[in-house]
Structures are given as structure tokens and as C-alpha cells.
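#structure-requests
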Amino acid sequence: MESIVIPMPQKGSSTQEERITTSIKITPSVWKQFKKHAIDKDTEISVLLEDMIKRELEQASKKRD
């Protein structure tokens, strides 16, 4: 597996939480599919990934309640 660094550009007003750069390990074939998916949705990879993570966390939170 290879390490992938996802730049998290800062956008928006100063009231938003600061974004950081992080990395994940992912298989190249899955990464290629995900990049294509982001292009098809006309969105940045980091934005799409962050939205998916937030949805996952919301679902997990609902299960705990």
C-alpha cells in the first residue's frame, strides 16, 4: 500500500474550524475509483471524503443514542 496525502485547503470565513493536512493508507485501485467518483460529482476529493466521514460519524452517534 502507498501513503496518500490529502491537502485540506482552508476555505470560508474565520468562524469555520481550521482544516489540516493528513494522510491515509489506501489501495491504489480504490483511490483511483474514488478520484473518478469525485470528478463525476464535480467536487474536490477532500470535500467528498470529509462529507462521507461526517455522515459516518452522525450515523454512529445516532446508534449510541
